[in-house]
Amino acid sequence: MANDPERFDSMLLAMAQQHEGGVKDLLSTIVGFLARKTDFFTGGKDGEWEKVVKDTFYTHAKKARDEAEKIKKEKDEAEKRLKDIQQRKEQERLAQDFEPATVTEITDQEAAKMQEDIEKDNKNKSELGAGEGASSDKENDSIPDEDDDPKEKGKLKPNAGNGCDLENYRWTQTLEEVELRVPLRQVVRPRDLTVIINKRHLKVGIKGQPLIIDGELDADVKVEESTWVLQDGRNLLVNLEKVNKMNWWGRLVTTDPEISTRKINPEPSKLSDLDGETRGLVEKMMYDQRQKEMGLPTSDEQKKQDVLKKFMEQHPEMDFSKCKFN
Questions:
Q1: Distance CA 156, CA 262 (A)
Q2: Is there a contact between 187 and 234 (Cβ–Cβ < 8 Å)?
Q3: What was the pLDDT predicted at 294?
């Protein structure tokens, strides 16, 4: 406590507020006190008080410069992190926008078969059009309104960013990440903040004050790819990278009110947006659907046929003419 340089701050601040002339008048009062009530100027050798003043002022001037440089460095690093995040997102968007199209060649026989199926499908639609029009109203009447679903009662409508605007913060989301914005209502430095991102827990606040957020996240995040940055000393931006990139979050932390994920309006996506495993699964489903529509075997059925054909070729002595295969 004796070495605490801030122990007289409140007293000196009160004195400073009473000096309309600012720091110059405050210094004059302190120096006048030394002259009237102490032997600071007369008790030592000639020039000694000048050396003390000079050493003291230069010491504190250096501390002030070092502190200012440190704050500037932290601000520059925070701005660089934010710029890197924005550049990465822009590069991802450009890569998606300029992704080259792929062309799959088909044989003349496959083309003829596809054309035949299209004509057949158009013919069926024209024959059933009137009947479907009459029954569509009845079908629509039987579809329950989302607002009538008891599971949806009490849930909030998502904001424009598919997240939620709350009293102390706002969050938005894509399938890949969650973006959190926290207005701090005062100017702070990065070191004044508490931001702890764990796999399933988030803490956000200003040191020495109650936490703004302290709760379990709606789903797991990738800690090593999640970042935060302080903007203009007043706004905290946190980016959380989702582990599961196929689900929408209903809330940021479990203590928040829940939004209706049914009412989320996602941006148009491409196969290139998906990870390798998910993309492969979707492409397989699309291929199997096309095969079924054309009356052709799916990928799994084709695989079984290939295995059977190979077995029959390896065993020509066996008679398969009367066998039935499922």
A1: 11
A2: yes
A3: 81
Q: Each residue of 107-165: pLDDT tens digit?
A: 666 666 766 776 777 666 666 655 555 454 444 444 445 556 777 888 999 999 999 99
Q: Name the 3-class secondary structure at 305.
A: helix
Distance of alpha carbon 287 from its chain centroid, rounded? 33
| Residues 6+ positions from 248 with CB-CB distance below 8 Å | 162, 173, 175, 261, 264, 266
Q: Tokens standing for 146?
A: 């989302």
Percent of the chain with pLDDT over 90: 32
Residue 211 CB: number of other CB atoms within 10 A? 13
CA angle 211-215-217, nearest 5°? 135
Distance CA 137, CA 148 (A): 19
146 touches 198 (CB < 8 A)? no
Q: Report d(CA 108, CA 106) in Å as an integer.
A: 7
Radius of gyration of the chain (CA): 36
pLDDT-derived band at 258 (thresholds 50, 70, 90) equals: very high
- 191-206 per-position pLDDT tens digit: 999 999 999 999 999 9
pLDDT attached to residue 105: 54
Helix/strand/coil percent split, the chain, to 5: 50, 15, 35
The phi, psi pair for 296, rounded to 5°, reads: -105, 160
